[in-house]
Design brief:
By secondary structure, this protein is α+β, with helices and mostly antiparallel strands. It has 7 helices and 8 strands.
């Protein structure tokens, strides 16, 4: 059986967990209350100049909102003006039902989003994926206090610094999710 056939026939898909649109900025109830397989968090370290805090180990199930709060990276997909895809991992925070990404003003993703503001992001775990699709607003100067605090806590990165030595001129990307995709592949594989 093809993977796509298993996904379509899975309880998560039938329950509306895969592909159902939801109001912008909200996580569907079935995602907020879904349990994830119990697994310890990974020790996430980095080779960049920034001090990245170690994620606490936990044996508690991770809900989607908890994972959005603690996971280190998302893969962000944008489309180049000539139609070719661009996919890259980025640091992010989840604040006020938005996904916020700090990046360089001269990055490929910013050029792509200037031409076409649609994007998708996905957490790195392919066994229990969380994917959000939506529209991105590029903020050159806006730095909401809650977003500044979240980046400082998660990455020890002060995004208020206009010119960062790693990324250059810092801009904030605000992704407003219009669609969430979710499936627990471990459950599908067990069926």
């Amino acid at each position: 059986m093809e993977v796509s056939e298993r996904l379509v026939g899975s309880p998560a898909f039938k329950a509306g967990g895969m592909g159902d649109p939801c109001p912008a900025g909200s996580i569907p109830v079935h995602l907020r209350h879904s349990g994830f397989p119990t697994r310890p968090s990974l020790d996430m370290t980095t080779t960049t100049r920034r001090t990245v805090k170690r994620m606490a180990s936990s044996t508690e199930p991770h809900t989607p909102t908890t994972r959005l709060d603690v996971e280190r990276n998302v893969w962000m997909a944008t489309t180049r003006p000539d139609g070719r895809p661009h996919l890259a991992p980025v640091w992010f925070v989840y604040v006020d039902n938005r996904i916020w990404i700090g990046t360089g003003a001269g990055s490929v993703r910013v050029a792509n989003l200037t031409a076409d503001p649609r994007a998708a992001v996905s957490l790195e775990d392919g066994n229990t994926p969380i994917v959000a699709e939506g529209t991105v607003t590029i903020h050159v100067d806006l730095r909401p206090a809650a977003v500044v605090a979240a980046f400082a806590e998660k990455y020890d990165w002060d995004i208020r610094i206009a010119d960062d030595e790693d990324v250059g001129r810092v801009v904030l990307l605000e992704l407003r999710p219009t669609k969430w995709l979710f499936v627990d592949l471990a459950t599908v594989a067990a069926e």
